[in-house]
Amino acid sequence: MTLSKLFHPLVWIILGGTIFTRIASFMAMPFLAIYLHNEIQASPLQIGLTIGIAPLISTVGGFFGGYLTDRFGRKSVILLTIIVWSLVFFGFATVHVVWLFILFNALNGLCRSFFEPSTQALMIDFTPADKRKRLFSLRYTAINIAAVIGPIIGVYISQLSSPSIPFMLTGLMYIIYAVFLFFVLNRYQMQQPKAVTQTKILSTFTILLTNRVLLSFILGAILINIGYSQFDSTLPQIIELKIDEGAKLYSLLISLNAAVVLLLQLPISIISERFSSTATLVVGVLFFAIGLFMFGFSTNYTLYIIGMIIFTIGEIFAFPTMNVMIDEIAPDTQKATYLGAAQFKNLGGFIGPIIGGWLLTHYMNAMFPVIAVLVLCSCIFYRTKTAAH
Asked: For residues 45 and 30, what is the distance between their CA atoms, to the nearest angstrom?
């Protein structure tokens, strides 16, 4: 079977759109903190609040976005969200008051939490169950391709012109994608919302809270995300403390992370298809923990590079598998609702930097081993899932 026949044409369109929109986003968002500091003269506290509001809002918003997607259909939520999202980026480019940046980044997090479950649910609708693990691996590869390309373009554009131009260009690209999707989604017959999903959101929330398997998944995923969040928060700080010209090493590790994902994503995906989702995720957790332990004991370039390769292999095993597991847990009529509820795992990305920062301040040498143990504890919750099935 050729690659083009592996998935429905609409799935390939959404995967291509994932690269397009993520490149647009990566052109601007990684530089939001620098933009706030240089152009708005925001304080570190204001910058922290602005950056932190997006994952916090998306944690809760994902549930509502998933519910609305199942309730009103994929197409409506996708198109409305991406139009609002484009306005958010135009807002970033034009406002000059900190509280408006906080508002716009809250909307940015909300839009992402609506868009992600709806596009993932749409791809699931058009993909047979036995191909979904490969689908989520390809989607993860698409995101990492964008993560390599987007920041390079963003830096180049901002150097040639105003620092606000990448935000403006991102908004324009989102509008182009919205118009394109309007015609594409009207061409294909969408899955209609099922009668069983026509329920009050409070009732749905109660159902999700009483689903032991889903709760186990979310609690385990929170612990994994606590570990992964150290990549952006405490790792650069501890490298700066331990290594001369630490910023140079950290930038190298960021590039290495993306390169390893692109190089190993497909072969690891093919290998993992032979095993259950639970087994695949546990393997990812073990690699994560070993990588974190290595970060704690590394004192030179070589050890950090080895640690990052191991850490990234854990990422490749774990993150696409999380989406597959949600697909396995969710009833056919509530795919987007469950994908949205799974966004509560992002609490780990909010809590992790706080825990890591406190450990870094008071117990620097023990920080990464403690975080690694927390990540390993997630395996307890995935044993629960195995038992439930």
From this structure: 18
Q: How far is CA 378 from CA 133, 140, 163, 217, in A?
A: 21, 22, 41, 9
CATH number at 1-193:
1.20.1250.20
**Which tokens hold the place of 356?**
């890591």
Task: Enumerate the domain spans of the chain.
Answer: 1-193, 200-389
Domains 1-193 and 200-389 share a fold: yes
Give the residue from 121, 156, 149 showing the smallest Cα distance to 262.
149
pTM for the model: 0.71
Three-state SS for 164? coil
For 41-72, how does the pLDDT look when each residue is reduced to its tens digit (9 = 90+)? 877 677 767 877 887 888 877 767 777 777 77
CA-to-CA dists, residue 107 to 42, 76, 112, 120, 182, angstroms: 19, 18, 9, 20, 22
- Does the domain formed by 200-389 have CATH 1.20.1250.20? yes
CA distance 350 to 335: 25
Helices and strands, counts by H and E, the chain: 18, 0
Q: Which two tokens stand for residue 384?
A: 């629960």
Amino acid at 314: G
